[in-house]
Amino acid sequence: MVSLRFQNLARHWNTTAFAVVFFVVSVFLFGGASQLNQLRLMVVELAALPLLVLAAGRFADGAFLGRHGFLLGLLAATLALPLLQILPLPPGLWSSLPGREPLTQALSLAGTAPGWTALSMTPELTWRAFLALIPPTAILLFALGADARRRDGLVILFVLGALASLGLGFIQLLAGSGRLYLWTDQGTRTVAGFFANRNHLATLCLVSLPFAATLITTAVRRGEPFRRPRFWLGLVFVPIGLIGLAAIQSRAGIVLILPVLVATLAAAWIADGRRKPNRAVTVVAALIGLLLLIIAVIAAPPLIARFTEAGSYDARLLAWGIVGEAAGTYLPVGSGIGSFDAIYRSVEPLATLDPLFFNHAHNEFLEMWLETGWPGAGLFIAFLIWFGRRSVQVWRASASDSGDLQRAASIALLAMVLHSGVDYPLRTETMAVLFALCCAILEFAGQGVPADDPPVRKRRRTRVRTGRTRDGRSTEDRSRPARLGA
To answer: CA within 20 to 30 Å of 83's CA: 159, 289, 309, 414, which one?
Structure first.
């Protein structure tokens, strides 16, 4: 019996499975920071190469390209943008670009004529940004070419990674020692997990909640949920994720809890066939509400302190105005991906200087507007069109395992986009890879239920017929199902 189990395990855990697991583990261990950690990021990029090789064969399939043409075109344009920004331009063309006047004047004062120069103000950082796109590209292409079972397995791996990151965060909080943090200058007594920034762990918790709920609903639909590990993984993660969000004390995470939970409950209602919530669903919703109330009471003082920190939002709003003015200087093509720090330092007023290091705009839309100009804005609008169309399709669809996963992906994508309005979670490899995976899952919305999707078990209604026997006793007949329209 034991040898048979090992044979089954070896059959399922082939080379592809090991490559995927190694990649996901690398993403969590080494992809939790956004910059100044090139050696760790290189590990993630190298771990993504086997997935790229495994997915490369799909490009010979014309049906695959036609089925996912819009999303693949969006991916190709995203990859092409940083490459175009580092291509050398003729001196006359480069000198005519907006925002290059100070450099042209400096060269003129030095007695040097401008040569062929890249569009980006920081070409080396733009090249690094292109390399950072390798892991999300790999997971997107691999998931698009995989079957529903493997995409489901990828989701389980990321929920496990989120649970492990929260576990490490709780240990960091209790230990109060800087030695348990994976990145430098993180301080102590903060819940950061595998990330350098606790706000990004909050993003991971938010986007994992709908997937954890999906694990529960699919286990219930397949029958005997208590015997399925996915059910217990989802059931364990939901309360731990909510407690983790309170312990992390991320303001954006706290604000987004309610809309994410409402959307998750709506997805669970659809997964249940859009019927009136039964007693089990009502009890679970009540328990979640009670848990939120307990968390609010216990964690209220530190959370209120986070929202009332003096000058925290004022400084950010002031910086946004400066970034917006700088972005207008470099329109229509932008200053180059990765150039935010250099550009902001060149335009930051002396009155705003303080010991805090403002390395990102804390607003991805503004930072993208500065670095990529109109091309980046066009790509983002194209993404919103794709996202809106796929989301409408999946939220209108009926209950199925793949449909439940797609609805969870739409919730996760929206949460990441909203959080990007006040932070930069997608600058980390971990969240960028998860974003790409959600895109791959949502791409299958409106394309029918996969052949390997488990069938939905429909509840059978029965009609009770009563009567009396010859001796006067009542009888009940529950054997015949009620006919439609009865």
So the answer is: 414
401: amino acid identity, one letter: D
**Helices and strands, counts by H and E, the chain:** 19, 4
Cβ atoms within 10 Å, residue 111: 6
C-alpha span between 25 and 27 (Å, rounded): 5
CA-CA distances (angstroms) from residue 104 to 90, 95, 97, 332? 13, 7, 11, 19
DSSP 310-373: TTHHHHHHHHHHHHHHHHHHHTTT-S-TT-HHHHHHHH--GGG--SS---S-S-HHHHHHHHHH
Q: What are phi and psi of 467, to 5 degrees?
A: -160, -165
Amino acid identity for residue 302 in this structure: P
- Concatenate the DSSP letters of all residues of 212-251 into one string: HHHHHHHHHHHS-GGG-HHHHHHHHHHHHHHHHHHHHT-H
Q: For residue 252, which of 362, 384, 413, 387 has the smallest C-alpha distance?
A: 362
The letter for the amino acid at 13 is W
* AA letter at 308: T
Three-class DSSP category at 386: helix
Contact 290, 240 (CB under 8 A): no
Nearby residues of 51 by Cβ (< 8 Å), 6 or more positions away: 19, 20, 23, 138, 139, 141, 142
Residues 38, 124: contact at Cβ < 8 Å? Answer: no
- Which residue from 106, 224, 236 is spatially nearest to 160, judged by alpha carbons? 236
- 3-state SS, residue 457: coil
Predicted model pTM: 0.87
pLDDT digit string, tens, across residues 276-332: 766 656 766 777 777 777 776 666 666 666 666 655 566 777 888 899 999 999 999
Residue pLDDT, tens place only, 214-234 = 999 888 888 878 889 999 999
Interatomic CA distance for residues 74 and 358, integer angstroms: 30
Instruction: Tell me the per-residue pLDDT of 341-368, one tens digit each, with 9 for 90 and over.
Output: 999 988 888 777 766 667 888 899 999 9
